[in-house]
Amino acid sequence: MPVQAATQELAATSENLNFLGSQGQWAQYRASPLQELLLYSSTSNFNVVSKKLVNVKSKVKGVGAIGAVKINEISKPKSQYDGQCVAFVKAVSKTPNIGTSSWTKGRPVVTKKNGKPVFNNIPAGTIIATFNSKGKYYGHTAIFGDCTSTGINVWDQNYIYSKVVGRHSIPFTGSGVNNAYNYYVVNVPA
Questions:
Q1: Residues 36, 29 contacting (CB under 8 angstroms)
Q2: 2 belongs to a structural domain
Q3: pLDDT digit string (tens) for 93-123?
Q4: Is the pTM of this model over 0.85?
Q5: How many separate domains does the chain show?
Q6: Quick check: is 1 in a domain?
């Protein structure tokens, strides 16, 4: 029987998790469902290497333009992955040199029992993602916040609006990256 390499669950640093969890640095992009974008002006204490200002027009009447933030890939200069979901989770977890090819599918964030969601006690700050049938990363990755009766709350990039950081809920309905049942914890080599 082959020996399996030790793995650990990937997570945001506690400093970055505390920053993301603070209310003051978010602006409402859409009211229903609630979607918010991270304000660039609030990121002086956000411990990431590379970030950029992106102006976004809010869909909420009276809000106007939002100076949102885009997190760039820090393992490669001028990477094609700048602004992507992977660049964001690698930056907030301080794992720029662990490629997605090293990611493995961990435990599910939620399962279904008798047609109802069952939360699997994933700690806030844990990196989650969608995977293909072979257990390889495919689709989208985010930072888990918490679980509600309608879905999971996450922080991510390139989901609400192209290439900017946001926070929102992923529902239990939908398909692909738009369904909370399709998310699993990201494991990396220990």
A1: yes
A2: no
A3: 998 888 899 999 999 999 999 999 999 999 9
A4: yes
A5: 1
A6: no
